[in-house]
Design goal:
The structure holds three protein chains of three kinds.
Chain A: H1 8-15, H2 28-31, H3 56-79, H4 92-119, H5 123-151, H6 160-164, H7 171-181, H8 185-214, H9 218-248, H10 252-270, H11 272-280, H12 289-308, H13 319-325, H14 329-339, H15 353-362, H16 367-383, E1 393-394, E2 407-408, E3 411-415, E4 418-422, E5 425-429, H17 432-440, H18 442-445, H19 451-456, H20 465-472, H21 488-497
Antiparallel strand pairs in A: 2-3, 4-5
Helix pairs in contact in A: 3-5, 3-9, 4-5, 4-7, 4-8, 5-9, 8-9, 8-10, 8-12, 10-17, 11-14, 15-16
Chain B: E1 3-9, H1 12-24, E2 29-33, E3 36-42, E4 44-48, H2 49-56, E5 69-73, E6 75-78, E7 82-86
Chain C: E1 25-31, E2 41-45, H1 51-58, H2 60-63, E3 78-81, E4 84-86, E5 103-108
Parallel strand pairs in C: 1-5
Antiparallel strand pairs in C: 1-2, 3-4, 3-5
The chains are: A mainly alpha, B alpha+beta, C alpha+beta.
């Protein structure tokens, strides 16, 4: 008689659930010491369901196939000098942000899921976290590998790991993940597994990656989509965790809601940089940040929250502010980087006239009124040989660590100032969302490593900004930073194209 | 009702998966973007093994979908014969 | 609860207490509705610095590049200190008129509407 093939459900049961064991001589609470302090109540881990029912044997099989496909394309890209076929050398600066700002987060996610998986008492969740942890390690490796090719031909890639821990704007993504990892296992899952993976990574890995393809970057779109194919599983895990927590105990509902409010806000702040990459750093345009936001946040996120309403979960707090921000944040962010272009590890530039017109068309209610004048000013200054680089250091938000560049959404000409007094000290925030997060857990955020203050405290070398950039950040001053115009990157490109 | 969606890499295998999805879900909207295909539907979408196998002309495991998948939205249920997405 | 921690009575190290700034305090200065400067500036300043030095020596360096800087009539400027109306005393030290560590000093020039009247 032929051996009967196990069906998916039986296979999942045998290869996941049956890996668990009863604790005969050890106290379960000592084995899983972080399960309770956040206030989450789990009554029955066996109710956990993994909708993908992926078992380790299938996991290795399909991940190996994904890797083979990916590396074949990376080889083809480098063997065919793919770097010469991108749309425009300005595009590569988005990859510098990706490698210094995003790839190290993949590594943090790898560590975070390894730890979180260990902390869960339920075997199904543990196995899913283990797979996700291995996925994240794959992502950081494939991203470094893909971008190592660009490192041979462009400046600004060489010190990504060193820079992630030091450069002022990179403290934004780094502290975001540090915040999540310093929380308990359930908050980490709501932060990264749900809020970040379900709604926010889509915006980076889907429309931005489609944009990479449209700009001739086969290597990036391939690692991006290959990573995102894992994210589909991660998103499902994130949603499953939320549903599981909400079904386990009604007392979990307000805790989960508070984490959703916090992490959607933190996530939208973090994505400001992706907004800017989409609107300003993709020379061939696929869609505007606003359009991408409407599809992946408002539509997809809206559907998600409608689905969760049956548990008593509502849309994240400040959803109305978030909706208005889609008209503004990409412009406010690129202006910040442009005016700090002497202190960035990548190049910045004034958008071309065609690009300014595209922005007017995509943002008819805001661009000409509030943002085009900034670029007109920058153009005038540049024409006089006075390319604008700001001269002092900016005030930062204590929570998101972004310069205080955001405006009141009902008055986009006015900087948004918020503050709290806590134990004899003042703390400043860019928004109500960030202030709420501080006020809830001030003892956490009094520890913020704010790059500007660290410079003033003498912890980043110096004394001059240039010394800090060169010695502490390891930016090749005059090569990696400053305007795209006249940069070594631009000169090399012109030589390749015979237009030097 | 909210839209569920699935996005696939634009390649030779996906083309047949998309054909199968269109056959099994006649009301879907298929959107082509650079390097990807996004398929949306009101409330429900199913990918059936049998239909995909018929289009591909070979055996196809539902879990092979992961090789071409980019992202999805909706509650997932994966079984031996199909993968479905739903919003309640 | 000031933090949700596994350790009872957990308290964090205050990274930005004034003692860490080598005798200086941090003061933030912002020019309302002039977003050529994307964010308020942060300056490490001696607490006994007279306001006049802040206004006449520290602030011009980053702000003077704005075409409207020269046009400011300082007698007409509205000042805010930590969100409240404030009248700086030029020859009084910062700390003696309430400009403390991590205070925010804002100034408003309602007759100057920014580059192209766009708040830039």
């Amino acid at each position: 008689m032929a051996t009967k093939k196990l069906n998916l459900k039986d296979k999942y049961r045998l290869l996941t659930r049956d890996l668990d064991w009863e604790f005969s001589y050890q106290d379960r609470k000592e084995a899983f010491p972080y399960e309770e302090f956040e206030g989450i109540k789990i009554t029955d881990w066996s109710k956990w369901e993994d909708p993908f029912r992926l078992t380790m044997d299938s996991y290795w099989k399909y991940q190996a196939e994904k890797e083979k496909k990916l590396y074949a394309i990376l080889d083809a890209f480098s063997q065919n000098n793919g770097q010469t076929n991108i749309s425009d050398p300005r595009y590569v600066n988005a990859l510098k942000i990706f490698l210094t700002g995003v790839s190290p987060l993949e590594y943090q996610a790898y560590q975070g899921f390894a730890q979180t998986g260990r902390e869960f008492g339920g075997i199904g969740a543990r196995v899913a976290c283990q797979m996700q942890s291995i996925d994240e390690l794959r992502h950081v490796q494939t991203q470094i590998h893909a971008m190592s090719h660009y490192n041979k031909f462009f400046d600004g890639f060489q010190e990504f790991s060193h820079q992630h821990d030091r450069i002022w704007y990179l403290s934004v993504p780094k502290s975001f993940f540090n915040d999540a990892r310093a929380a308990g296992p359930f908050e980490f899952m709501v932060a990264i597994g749900f809020s970040f993976e379900y709604v926010l990574t889509n915006l980076l890995f889907v429309p931005f990656m489609s944009g990479a393809a449209y700009n001739g970057d086969m290597a990036t779109v391939t690692f991006g989509f290959s990573a995102q194919s894992d994210e589909a599983r991660h998103m499902t895990l994130g949603l499953e965790v939320i549903k599981f927590l909400l079904e386990q105990h009604e007392d979990n509902v307000p805790i989960v809601q508070k984490w959703i409010d916090k992490w959607f806000w933190r996530g939208t702040r973090l994505l400001t940089i992706v907004a800017m990459m989409m609107d300003y750093m993709l020379p061939n345009k696929v869609m505007s940040w606003k359009e991408a936001w409407e599809v992946y946040f408002e539509e997809a996120g809206g559907a998600l929250f409608k689905d969760l309403a049956r548990y008593g979960i509502r849309m994240p707090k400040y959803a109305e502010t978030i909706e208005k921000e889609k008209e503004h944040i990409s412009h406010q962010a690129w202006w910040t980087f442009y005016t700090h272009g002497h202190a960035t590890g990548f190049h910045t530039w004034v958008p071309s006239d065609e690009e300014l017109d595209w922005l007017s068309e995509k943002y008819p209610d805001t661009f000409d009124k509030y943002y085009r004048p900034r670029w007109e000013m920058a153009k005038e200054m540049e024409a006089k040989g006075e390319r604008f680089y700001t001269k002092a250091l900016p005030q930062l938000c204590t929570v998101c660590q972004i310069p205080m560049l955001f405006t009141e959404m009902d008055d986009p000409t006015q900087t948004c100032y918020r503050s709290s007094d806590y134990e004899e000290n003042k703390y400043h925030f860019c928004s109500d969302g960030c202030k709420d997060i501080f006020d809830d857990e001030p003892e956490k955020y009094v520890q913020s490593w704010l790059p500007v203050h660290q410079i003033f405290q003498g912890n980043c070398g110096g004394p001059d900004v240039e010394d800090i950039l060169r010695d502490y950040y390891r930016i090749n001053v005059g090569t990696d930073n400053m305007d795209m115009k006249g940069s070594p990157d631009e000169l090399r490109w012109k030589e390749w194209k015979g237009t030097a | 009702m909210s839209k569920v969606y699935i996005a696939l890499q634009d390649n030779d295998v996906s083309r047949y998966i998309v054909e199968a999805i269109e056959e099994d879900n006649p009301d879907v909207t298929v959107i082509h973007m650079p390097a990807m295909i996004r398929i949306e539907n009101e409330g429900f979408l199913v990918v059936k093994r049998e239909t995909v196998e018929e289009k591909l002309g070979r055996e196809w495991d539902v879990q092979e979908l992961h090789l071409n998948l980019i992202t999805l939205g909706g509650n997932v249920d994966e079984e031996d014969d199909q993968l479905s997405l739903t919003w309640n | 609860m000031p933090v949700h921690a596994i350790t009872p009575n957990y308290s964090g190290e205050v990274k930005d207490r004034v003692e860490n700034f080598h005798g200086n305090q941090v003061v933030y200065v912002g020019w309302d509705k002039h977003l050529m400067f994307c964010a308020p500036f942060a300056f490490p300043l001696p607490p006994d610095m007279p306001f006049r030095v802040l206004l006449e020596t520290v602030m011009p360096d980053p702000f003077c590049v704005h075409p409207e800087w020269e046009k400011i009539d300082w007698s007409q400027v509205n000042w805010l200190l930590d969100g409240k109306p404030f009248m700086p005393q030029l020859d009084v030290a910062l700390q003696d008129q309430g400009v403390g560590h991590k205070s925010v000093v804002r100034f408003q020039t309602p007759e100057l509407l920014g580059f192209h009247n766009a708040g830039v």
